[in-house]
Amino acid sequence: MSEPARNTILHDTGLRPSSTSGPLRDWLAAMRATAPESRQPEAEAPQATAAPAADAKTVGWAPRLVVPDETPQAQDDEVAELIAENMMLKAKLRLEADRRDELQLLLAQEVRELRSHIGEEIAKMEDLRGERDLWKARCEALMQPLFSGQAR
What we know:
By secondary structure, this protein is mostly helical. It has helices at about 5, 25-60, 70-150. The protein has a domain at about 70-150.
């Protein structure tokens, strides 16, 4: 630490006279003035709630009635509805699975048919290539005597 920091004198708030006023002291004084006023209604509130309790004790004891939220029959009905909904959803799921399986079978059959058709078309193209090559060879054979006569 530096020397000036060690030698600083701490300000003692107790040495100040309380007659000096500042914004903080004014605010604190205002808060102290309003605090007792706000505490009094709170103190009166428990007494007001205690009075009806005392009246109930003087009138006599009465059992507290507890009303259940739902009756067991209502809960059973709700469970039955949920079970029925679950069964309907399972049936729909089975139907959708069956439809999906049928569509997959149809698609597989279509793919097989397309593959066989493509195979047939490729076979036809190979036949045409063979014929083309045959005609090309025949043409070359027929043209050979014509061009060989000019070369001599």
